[in-house]
Task: structure prediction
Amino acid sequence: MSDAPANEILFTYGTLRLPQVQLDTFGRVIDGDDDVLPGYTVDYVDIEDPHVVELSGHVAHPIVRHTGNALDKVVGTALLITEDELDAADEYEVELYHRERVRLASDRDAWVYVAH
Result:
C-alpha cells in the first residue's frame, strides 16, 4: 500500500482476522492485540458476494449489533492499520455492514463494522 503511518485501530471479530483475507485486503498479515467490545453481541448473516465467500471460505459471517447492555461483549482483535488499509477494509465489507467509532474495553477508540 503506501508509506503512511499505521495510526487507525480496527476492531476485528470475524473474517478480517483471517490471514488470507488480510493478505488480499491489506497486502500484509497484521498482528493485532486481543481486545473486547462491550455493549455488543454477535449474530450471523449470509454473504452473497462471491469474492468475499471464496476468500473467507464461509457463507455465514459474524456481524455485531449494539445492545447497550454492559453485560454483552464481543471478543476480537484490534489491528493497527493505515488510512489506506481502512479504505481497503471498507471495500471488502459488504452492504450489510457499516463502519462506526467505538470505545474498546482497553479504553482505546477504534473502528468496527456493525450491522446496518
The helical segments are 19-26, 50-56, 83-92.
